[in-house]
Each structure stands twice: as C-alpha cells, then as structure tokens.
Amino acid sequence: MNSPNAATLLFVYGTLKHGCSNHAQLAGAEFVGPARTPPGFRLHDLGGFPGLAPHADDRDGVVGEVWRVDGAGLARLDRFEGVAEGLYARRPIALLPPFAGEKIAAYLPVAPPVGRRDLGAEWVE
C-alpha cells in the first residue's frame, strides 16, 4: 500500500472527470492534464458508469484526464471503486504523449464487459 505522502498518476475516464457526478472523490488531487489511451480501448456501460476495456477494432482510444493522487486519496478511491470487492482493479495503462512511457494507473473493471453497450471513446454525463 502507498504511504500517505506517495503520489500516483491516475487516468480517469468516467464519473471522476471534471464536471462529472463523482468528481468530488478527487478532492485534494492535482489535475495534471487531459489524456488519451492509444487505439485499442473503448468504454462500456456498466449501469450508469463506464468501464474501460480492450477492444481490438478500436481506432480512437479513450479520452480522459490524468491526476496526481496522494496515498490517502488513492486509498479512498480504491474503496470508492470497489477494489476490495473485486469490482475494479487499479492497473497500469499506456497513454499517448505527453504521458507515453510514464507510470500511469487506471481503474479497470475486473469482469469483462461482455454484452454491455459500447459507449465509444468519451464518457459524457
């Protein structure tokens, strides 16, 4: 587990983004900038919120934001995202420049979104 002072770069792509319903969960985090995954990812409807998953036919990638989150904030987000319950897992993800090659984390659904509606490249509330 991260110490309270350790910072993690986190890619958010859904309800945690600026202007979205759960953005307050990022209180105390620092906005780093807009970001996009490389092609090969899509968003899927998981019931009022999105899940990011690999998608072989995608040519656009997924639009999101990168935030710098301290250890306490990351622990709070892990609880919010249901990591202990097995809903989401925090995993490394590749992003396009200017974040290419950096260690970036994202919350990815544990269960594949089979049969879930494809939402495309960007979550909009």
Keywords:
125 residues; mainly beta; 5-stranded mixed β-sheet; 3-stranded antiparallel β-sheet; 1 helix; 8 strands; 8% helix; globular
Report what the structure shows.
The chain has 125 residues and is mainly beta. The model has no long low-confidence stretch (mean pLDDT 93). It has one helix and eight strands.
Termini separation comes to: 32 Å
Q: Could you list the spans in which at least 5 consecutive residues all have pLDDT below 50?
A: none
* Spatial shape: globular
Q: Helix and strand string, N-terminal first?
A: EEEEEHEEE
Helix content: under 10%
Radius of gyration: 14 Å
How many extended strands? 8
Number of helices: 1
Largest sheet, spatial ordering of strands: 2-5-1-7-6
Structural class: mainly beta
What average pLDDT do the residues reach?
93
Give the topology.
Elements: E1 7-12, E2 30-36, E3 41-45, E4 50-54, E5 63-70, H1 71-80, E6 88-92, E7 105-109, E8 118-120
Parallel strand pairs: 1-7
Antiparallel strand pairs: 1-5, 2-5, 3-4, 3-8, 6-7
Concise structural overview:
This protein is 8% helix and 35% strand.
